[in-house]
Amino acid sequence: MSKKVLVLGEAREGVLRNVSFEAIAAAKKISGGGEVVGVLLGDSVQSLGEEMIQYGADRIITVEHPHLKQYTSDGFGQGFMAVYEQEKPDAVVFGHTALGKDLSPKIASKLSSGLISDVTDIEGEDDAAVFIRPIYSGKAFEKVKNKDGLLFITIRPNNIPPLELDSSRTGDIASITVEITNLRTIISEVVRKTTEGVDMSEAKVVIAGGRGVKSAEGFAPLQELANLLGGAIGASRGACDADYCDYSLQIGQTGKVITPDLYIGVGISGAIQHMAGMSNSKIIVAINKDPEANIFKVADYGIVGDLFEVIPMMIEEVKKIQG
Ligand code: FAD
């Protein structure tokens, strides 16, 4: 039976995050030829609807309110519930992002629905859809099916490819008015801890530095390589603890979980807690002067050598290739 599926579009500074398009692709599979409805919540999001349609959504519903300018679970919860009540979908897809991880269990429990979180792939369609998700910090995968009734899933960024953008697609963009009341928290200011360039959780290439990088200055060549490859910088907790970089860059069990196309670990030993955050990357390259380093066990390509020699050589080679 074809389904109606709601997808929450996530925007940052007026730009839709890639995971929104990946969520539409997931919703298409679940819908089995039914309807995919994009949901946009914010203070000014109307203009983003068209792009969601071009990536495969059939129509869009927006909720605009000054209290939705910044995410709060109360505000977004009220906005999303209003759309839910109007649409009564069969399934809902969120990104497995900070926002999605906070909001999806809240709404799913309110609706007494189950939630399949951190989905990395979907086999089959419609009622036959089977959801694949990592368990035990990525050491195994489980396949989960929704028994019946309402389905909630969150999808891990960078795993389910978005559909190709089709600029000829059109669809209805409607808005609904919602009173956002009784907020228990109001965000008065957001102070961003900015790092240069691309956001690590959505980056296709991540260059991660460890304690072997030896200093904050030691991260500069890694940043140069990341810039050349259009990638982002990450780090081990060892590097963060040593104050070489900010904790927002930490990858691992107590940091971010990433699945880029290419992860390059530089001067990182490969502790189990670090590998919990990167071992599902598509290609893993490790650079370490110790041939026995644990990270080589999961690496597709290993370079045994001094990172202070290897990274400048890589930068030179990439520059040559890029002309
Ligand atoms: P080290 O283990 O010190 O490794 C440094 C590596 O650099 C060595 O392998 C060395 O051979 C190499 N090296 C040194 N100089 C050079 C050079 N010139 N060229 C090439 N290689 C060189 N860690 C995380 O990363 N993420 C987490 O989320 C996380 N969560 C944790 C949670 C708990 C509860 C605990 C107990 C620990 C956690 N840790 C986490 C810490 C983890 O156990 C390790 O201590 C940490 O990952 C080590 O960081 P590192 O590999 O940079 O440093």
From TrEMBL:
InterPro entries: DHS-like_NAD/FAD-binding_dom, ETF_a/b_N, ETF_a/FixB, ETF_alpha_N, ETF_asu_C, Rossmann-like_a/b/a_fold. Residues 5-195 form the Electron transfer flavoprotein alpha/beta-subunit N-terminal domain. Pfam families: ETF (PF01012), ETF_alpha (PF00766). Gene3D superfamilies: HUPs, TPP-binding domain. Belongs to the ETF alpha-subunit/FixB family. This is Electron transfer flavoprotein subunit alpha/FixB family protein. It comes from Sporosarcina siberiensis.
